[in-house]
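Quick one: structure for this chain?
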Amino acid sequence: MDELVHHCLRELSFDGDLGCNVSRLREFIVGFYTSQYDHTQLVDDAFCAFVWSIVVQQPSVRVGTLPPGSISEVYIAPQTSAKRKAAAKGEELIAGVPPSLELVEDARHKHLQDLKREYGDNLRIAVDPGTSFAAITGSHIKPPKLSPMVYSALQLITRGREDGITTVELGRKTNYDQKTCFYLIKQLVELSLIIKARRGGVGNHICIHKYFVQRSPLWQQIQDEEARNGEAMVTGERADTDEEVTGQDRSSQILFDPIDSRHLSSLPLVKNRIIKLLKGSRTHIHQSNNLLMTIGFVHPTKTDRRFFQTRLRELIQQGVIERVLVPSSKMRDRTIKCIRLVTSDNQLSEGSVVVRQDVDEDEKVVGHNEVRANLTIHKQVSNSLEEAGPSGLTLNDICISLGNFDKRTIELLLTRASNSRPPAHLLDLGTLDLMETFGRERRHRYFTLAAYKCVMASEQLQDTITSVIDVDLSRVGDFAILDPKHFYTTTAKLHSYQDSFKDITSAKGKKRKRDEEGSNEEESEPPPKPKRGRPCKTPALTIVSTTPSHSLRPSKRSRTNGGGKSRSNINISSLRRENELFKVIENMGGIANMHSKDIYEAHTALLDTMSQAKEPTSAPVGTRLDKRTAESTLKNLENRGRIKMLRTSLIAPSGVSRPACLVYLPDTPQDKVNAFLCQVEEVQSIEAKSVLRKKAEEARTQREQEIRGAIKETQQGPPITPTASVKKKGKVKEETEASRRPRFHWTQEFDELARDASAIIRARCRASRLDLSAFDQVFPTVPRNSVRQRITHLRDNTSEDTYMKRLEDQWYTIWLQYRGTPHLPDEDPNSSSNFNLINHIEFLRKHVDKNALRVGFVECEAPSKLAISVQELHKFYEVGEDVVPAPAWDFMWGTTVEEGREKQFRSQAFTKEPDSMYEGTKNQKVQLAEAALKMVFGTPSELYDPDSATRLLHSAGDQCVSVARSNLLHQGVLSKLVRDPRQPKPGRMLKISDANLNCLGGPFPRGLFQDAISLEDIAVERVVDEMEWPLIPSEGDIVTLLQLVSEDQVDFTVDLSQSRAARQMIDWNSKRADDEDIETSIRLRFSRTFVVGPGGNQDQSPESPVEPDSNTLGQGIHGTTLDGKEAACTLKTEVGVINCSACIDTAFAIFTSSLSQSDRDLARRILDSAHRLRETGLNKAECLGLECGVGGHILWLVHRMTLTSPPILFWTYFNAPILVAANYCGAWTVAVSDGPLTLVTPRRWLDLRGCRLDDTWGAAQQAVVSVVFLHPGISQAELQWRLRMVYDRQEIIDLLSSLQEENVLECQTDACVETIQSLPGWLKTLDDEETVFWFIAKNHHWYQI
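Got it. Here's what it folds into:
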């Protein structure tokens, strides 16, 4: 109840100072119990009244009515501009006090129903403003940015809860203009109180309070899916319907969780889903039609679809996807618009083309994208055209380059510029308006005159419509030519010229007579009256001039008349198409048939070739020329004399006359034309025969279908003819009786058939989506939906529904028993449509007693007898146990949200036994090959040798290496090295994946250890006695400081003098505060005594060699194994594992010479047992069985035998520790050299020579120490599980042994025998790694590695 009351108070606080209607209290209660999955409550009037009686008793709750005249949900603060306007008018805007509820007296002691009857809908409940302010802002302190207007907007946003409020709706509710709303939202975003997300619509955004974003399941789902980075929320799979794109069988496709318009506000979410969809699609291509619904959007509106297209354009700009045109597999010469995932190794399928991004003009930005204030618009347009050069600019290009300037204004300027030419010295800057066709769009493209001449010359286009190409540009760049008559010599002539305009104005429309020279007009002008004031300045230069000509007077603004130049009719796309078809004719031998498809296919191929060569084309890539356009273009070529056309008709063998049109070059000989004409006639004859044969086949097929239809009609009624009606706007659709589809007549037999078929189909689809396509087998002429509706109608009867459920259950039992047997053949039981439904129905009617099901008789199964023991349980049942995916308490370290960690901590029980991280056994030879592959691909390029790598992998087994390569690729350890397939190069085709390399050093970066050691060196070596702590230290510095502080080796001095001095000046006003005023100076003084950790453990050093006498030396031959094969010998190599029998015999003799007789005999038994089992080796039980006494002693002796030089025994531990004699180590090693033979156990930190890579070795040590530091007391099993993707079990044990020897780590086990305590931690319990726990060693700093 306390939680419910707290929830109601919080919801009341979110409704603002004026609260809400009391009826919303029920909504608060229902919402609370909806989120409580572990508790249910009947919310009725009595319970709501009870909760009301508790809530109104809270001190912060108020009950009252709205003040008169209050129409808004919250108090809307007056806009600052309203105050300013009122002051300008001399009025005074009264800044009223925020309204509050008119409290109801003694409301806490009245019943809720009584208050409703008395006050009706005016009754409201709220909390005091302070409580509401604290709940909405999260603090009692008012930030300076939170002005009354900002707080009003925040209250409206908060009332929207998880749905928020749009910017348009916010302006409508507050009556603020959108600029003001933008400013208010910006302030709230900077205060981290709301988030602002895009949504559909022009310039529309949605604002949501952060409280609901962090707690709403919807927004949490959006944020979780964003955090997955490419892993979208999916619920299953469904069939891919893009058959027209793929041209192959249906493939599985991802089925996404449903989303709505709010999800589109997250671009990462949309990006993740599209990438997931494309990765699951064949060739990473998917049809763009209905793509929004494919990724989970249900019932999108037009606004949603437009906004989704905006999101797609953003992804195209980011280089994530691209638009492509893919040939259709259903219709020839048709392409499908698709999107494709952009990857470096993804190649386009044959026939597919990429659509250039500049198709969308809205996304193209040319030149400067802002309007310059110091330059006229005319000049900026001219500069843009000049900079564009031969490519020219469209109207959209120019407007976008000028900051999305008004298109109508720019178009007017361009029209005027194209209708008038500049003077001769600026003639190259003249504007030319051309038309072009881009797909189905016809648009204007503007050029400068110089650029147009360049285009025409470079592309060899022929312009016969205008004479612009012949314009002389020889005087471009010279000085302007001016008429001396345009200058005046005396002030009197200037005044006379100016006064002439005055006379024109005073004439009031009357015409004045003037001669061509204007001299009479000058003489008739009276002398000007003397003007008062300062006389005009005389011209600085004496310029010889004649009297001004009235022809120079500016005329009134008029529309463009016929004398001016109208818009150009030149279509540059048409000119380019003429050249393209001319090239096609040349490439086809100078002659072609226009009525054949060859010329059209050749033109499409030419467009592709020119586009790849970056040459301008007449249409986008993939465009197919239509017949009408081709005829018009070829006719223009004929009119210009570039080609000739011969129109004729050919008589086919069937007697039908077929038209033919030959196009050929003018210089083509007549003999070649005649020969080509005969060839065309022959081809048409062959095609006519083929057509006749095809029509005969179609007629025969149609006759067979008519016969089958007649047979089916006798069974199920007349066939259904599809209705082909065309809807036209403004016309009434007319249907005839023949075009209407007749209604199927359902009988009792057909109803029974539908029941049986439905039971069979529903039983098959219990584990998948219901698929009704199998109905076509028994109802071929009835639509599936009609059958479905009939079954639904039958199920409306309760008894019928019960019977059909029993029938389905009974059939499901029989089907599971007999499916796939000779009695009931079923090749694909998992398919919902690929089966013989008729056979299944016959089997059902033969083996199911329907009358018994109708009367309710159901066979009861015999009661099952419970097992009396565990043995019987395992004998008669299959026991399934869930594999533990992670340790039970792993959420304490892996959960990022504190609230989730607390909730899971409450529900998690303490475990008595440690978690078992056992993941099953793998083939040990395959694991050896995996280690070898990581060793090969981990070798740096400068040390890599292909021959050495081939030899090493061959020694691991070719078949095992193949399996291991597939495993590592599937696990993400390896990835393909992206190369250009057109330029094959020798070398590695795979590499260690970037994700795996990033995990090489563990959870902490490499620089952390370096910075930590550097700071500790400064402290230990006393480089400085005192240092100032930086404001932004590195992570390594913080690590060292925490370590030294925990050891009480650091003293702090905090200087507050600067902040104290600034306190008086700031006077609690944060706007006056600077960063330096609130920052404190912290200085560190290191202690003079430091605890230095001890060195490495010397007990684990290899056995010191002892000079043997002549009687103890081995008698074998050096360089051979016990089987007589070549071996690695100490006389030839000093690297790797030795399996030379003579060297091992010598080492054993030296080792046993210092042992007692009992230990010598025990060592001999151990070695003989290992020799007897060869490479299989001894496990722990077999090893301990060789000694009758305490098992710890034999482990101690075995450990010493593994430390001899060379080792007599060695451990291999892929799945379980196995003790193998060194003579048979060849099966557990790889060869790194043949001359001499050198064997090594594959490790990730070894290169192809068997030498250690110090960087990789250091990173591996840091990874182990980091995990132990983050999980103190971690078991050895869990440690291996956490690093399983980077290091295998052998590598982990080698690292633990090395770190224990260096006294970096220490382990604790249950073993108490003294000999066991001296062994390495991993060796104390060989097969029980859950009981070995690792810690950072005492008096050792964990980052010192």
